[in-house]
Amino acid sequence: MSDGRNSRKISEEQRSSVFARLRTYFIAGIVIIAPAAITVMAALWFIRLFDDVIKPLIPTMYNPDHYLPFTVPGTGFVFALVIITLVGMASVNFVGATLIGWWDSIIHRTPVVRSIYKGSKQIFQTIFSDKGQSFRNVCLVEWPRKGVWAIAFVSREIDGGEVGLEAGRAMYAVYIATTPNPTGGYVFFADRSDVKILGMSVEDGLKLVISMGLVFPEKPLSPDAEVKMAKAS
Q1: Burial zone of 55 (CB within 10 Å; 0-12 exposed, 13-18 middle, 19+ buried)
Q2: Fewer CB within 10 Å: C terminus or N terminus of the chain?
Q3: How does pLDDT run across 58-113, given as a tens digit for each residue?
Q4: Dihedral (CA of 17, 21, 22, 26) sign
Q5: 48 vs 41, 52, 59, 65, 71, CA distance in Å?
């Protein structure tokens, strides 16, 4: 009788071990497949978006769908890249710069539209400028109340006089991103003494926000980078 019980016990342990292993394999598969699937779906959505908007504008003689028995995905995206590159090339010569200046002057004289155009242009110039940075540092601020800390990003250093406060007051323009979409958030101005600069890169800070606090930096910044952070704060 005892041998039978022991054999049943061993068999149950083996089954539970097999199920535990299968569960581990299943979770590992999700971790590998889910990010890849999300990336592919996002890329396909982006390509379809360009195809739906740009393809109807492509002349028939340049549209491969007109010559082939099947639809070529990504044609609108490629065409958009070519147009953007050609506009960039034209902007660096005299004629192109003159036309762009003429366009800017028209937009700046148009009510409502000029505010949208000027604001969006400044944003893209800041993001893509070689001399600038999207964000300077990752930081902690007490938000939304004292004693509760939130991950934020230092956009730039400012003087209090720039925002209607005392001139000479050392402050930061701080951006708090929402989770999991970091493009929505809050901008506020805080004294530098109220902002704690963290020893992590902006990329790691964004990962931390997007992952809802699940993905922390694998390693901190180097000692030299931490010194630079301390000087910046």
Answers
A1: middle
A2: N
A3: 888 888 887 888 888 888 888 888 888 888 888 778 777 888 888 888 888 888 77
A4: positive
A5: 10, 6, 18, 14, 12
Contact 175, 190 (CB under 8 A): no
Strand locations in the chain (E): 137-142, 149-159, 170-177, 185-191, 196-197
**pLDDT winner (highest mean) among 46-55, 64-73, 83-92, 185-194:** 185-194
Copy the structure tokens of residue 5.
């019980």
Which stretch of 15-24, 145-154, 193-202, 215-224 has the lowest confidence by average pLDDT? 215-224
> Residue 83 is encoded by which pair of tokens?
């147009």
Q: In this structure, how many other beta carbons lie within 10 angstroms of the beta carbon of residue 182?
A: 16
Identify the burial level of 102 via C-beta atoms within 10 angstroms of its C-beta, where 0-12 means exposed, 13-18 middle and 19 or more buried: exposed
Residue 140: phi and psi, rounded to 5, are -115, 135
Residue 81 structure tokens: 């890249």
What's the Cα-to-Cα distance from 125 to each of 93, 106, 147, 194, rounded to whole Å? 19, 20, 36, 29
Q: What is the DSSP letter of 93?
A: S
Q: Taking residues 174-195, what's their average pLDDT?
A: 87
CA nearest to 199, candidates 139, 134, 154: 139
